[in-house]
Design brief:
Number of helices: 3
GO biological process, one term: tetrahydrofolate metabolic process
CATH topology: Folate-binding fold
Number of domains: 1
Largest sheet: 4 strands, antiparallel
Bound molecules: zinc ion
Organism: Marinobacter psychrophilus
Protein name: Sarcosine oxidase subunit delta
Low-confidence stretches: 100-115
Shape: globular
Mean pLDDT: 86
Order of helices and strands: EEEHEEEHH
Distance between the termini: 6 Å
CATH class: Alpha Beta
Helix content: 10-25%
Strand order of the largest sheet: 3-4-5-6
Number of strands: 6
InterPro entries: SoxD, SoxD_sf
GO molecular function, one term: sarcosine oxidase activity
Length: 115
């Protein structure tokens, strides 16, 4: 089991309270009327599946029920940062690869660690 920090409740809670809702920061076509079938297809169906840093949307289903974003390493399962919808992560591929350096330190004290 691991723990996730909800940026709205400002509490570190069990993973069982949360659900992953897939990739974060999916951009809807800016002009829907003019979007091609290919653009709609990309928006609706295609998602990144990286090895390493990935931004995901999660929901605190058994808590405040709010959606928020998680920067997670898909190899180690380490959660590097959680942040509110509308915000951007401070974690980059470079900082994620180097683990607990720089801004990532700040995130670790409130993030989940596998037990
Ligand atoms: Zn919450």
């Amino acid at each position: 089991m691991f723990y996730i920090h909800c940026p709205y409740c400002a509490e570190r809670r069990s993973e069982e309270e949360f659900h992953c809702m897939g990739q974060a920061h999916i951009q809807r076509p800016k002009n829907p009327e003019a979007a091609s079938d290919r653009e709609w297809g990309d928006y609706l169906f295609f998602r990144d599946n990286p090895r390493g840093l990935h931004q995901e949307m999660w929901v605190h289903a058994a808590g405040c029920r709010k959606f928020f974003n998680v920067a997670r390493n898909t190899v180690s399962y380490e959660i590097l940062e959680t942040y509110r919808i509308g915000e951007q992560t401070s974690v980059t591929v470079g900082t994620a690869a180097h683990g607990r350096e720089g801004k990532v330190d700040q995130a670790h004290e409130v993030q989940g660690v596998r037990a």
